[in-house]
């Protein structure tokens, strides 16, 4: 058996400094039609965004800060969370190719190594007539930064490997991994992707905000309607993935 590999990322734009790679693409998309697979990379974000209003901090020209455009119009709205799932898996697989240390996916959008944050992502969806029109996936991956002022429990690949790494080679590796798993999503391999994701989050306690309260969350399962079944502070609950 041979596998046909389709690379969906065909064009990259590099900008020295911007407010946020996601914001830039959101504004650009209002003016022109952007092709799927466009990747925007920057050395520095002066207003990088994280989840629920948090900021993403990064030293200039040390880490990977990028966003890309997807047009998963094939994906039913209740499968929206699969974009988050494949992003988690792709970053996990990328990190695993550089370190043998313990990697955890912290629901919903961070990755940790030995309980220290190394990567995070943010997804902005554009929904029209109850269908996904496009989404912009923004990723921050700590590569060569060695000190993190005012931040606890943060690490980088350079700290783990004791080497200076080529950020753009790592980006190319990530885009190949992402293309491969995105093609699985196009092929509707939902069960395979779901099983892999659940195996990676299995028994991991994420300390994160849920309904504005710091909670301990363990992802147990994914429903066909896109909801997550999780233990929230020991109580089994359904969590609806935000459809904004």
Tags for this model:
single chain, 244 residues, alpha+beta, 7-stranded mixed β-sheet, 4-stranded antiparallel β-sheet, 5 helices
SSE diagram, text form:
Blueprint: E1 11-18, H1 21-31, E2 38-45, E3 64-70, H2 81-96, E4 103-106, E5 110-113, E6 116-128, E7 131-141, H3 157-161, H4 167-186, H5 190-201, E8 206-210, E9 213-222, E10 228-232, E11 235-239
Parallel strand pairs: 1-2
Antiparallel strand pairs: 2-3, 3-7, 4-5, 5-6, 6-7, 8-9, 9-10, 10-11
Helix pairs in contact: 2-4, 2-5
Describe the protein's architecture and organization.
- By secondary structure, the chain is of the alpha+beta class.
- Helix content is 26%, strand content 33%.
- The protein is built from 5 helices and 11 strands; from the N terminus they run βαββαββββαααββββ.
- The protein has helices spanning 21-31, 81-96, 157-161, 167-186, 190-201; strands spanning 11-18, 38-45, 64-70, 103-106, 110-113, 116-128, 131-141, 206-210, 213-222, 228-232, 235-239.
- The strands form 2 sheets. It has a 7-stranded mixed β-sheet, with helices on both faces.
- The radius of gyration is 17 Å and the shape is globular.
- The chain starts with 10 loop residues before the first strand and ends in a 5-residue tail after the last strand.
- The relative contact order is 0.15.
């Amino acid at each position: 058996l041979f596998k046909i590999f389709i690379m969906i990322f065909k064009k990259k734009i590099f900008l020295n400094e911007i407010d946020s790679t996601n914001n830039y693409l959101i504004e650009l998309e209002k003016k022109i039609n952007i092709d799927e697979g466009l990747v925007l990379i920057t050395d520095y974000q002066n207003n990088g965004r994280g989840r629920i209003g948090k900021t993403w901090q990064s030293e200039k020209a040390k880490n990977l800060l990028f966003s890309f455009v997807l047009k998963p119009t094939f994906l039913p709205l209740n499968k929206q969370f699969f974009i988050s799932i494949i992003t988690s898996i792709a970053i996990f697989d990328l990190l695993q190719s550089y370190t043998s240390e313990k990697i955890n996916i912290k629901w919903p959008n961070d990755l940790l190594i030995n309980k220290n944050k190394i990567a995070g992502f943010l997804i902005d969806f554009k929904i029209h007539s109850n269908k996904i029109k496009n989404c912009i996936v923004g990723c921050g991956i700590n590569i060569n930064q060695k000190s993190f002022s005012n931040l606890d429990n943060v690490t980088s690949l350079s700290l783990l490997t004791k080497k200076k790494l080529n950020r753009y080679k790592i980006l190319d590796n990530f885009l190949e991994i992402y293309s491969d798993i995105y093609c699985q999503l196009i092929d509707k391999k939902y069960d395979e992707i779901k099983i892999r994701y659940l195996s990676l989050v299995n028994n991991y306690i994420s300390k994160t905000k849920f309904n504005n309260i710091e909670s301990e969350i363990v992802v147990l399962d994914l429903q066909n309607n896109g909801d997550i079944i999780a233990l929230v502070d020991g109580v089994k609950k359904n969590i609806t993935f935000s459809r904004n």
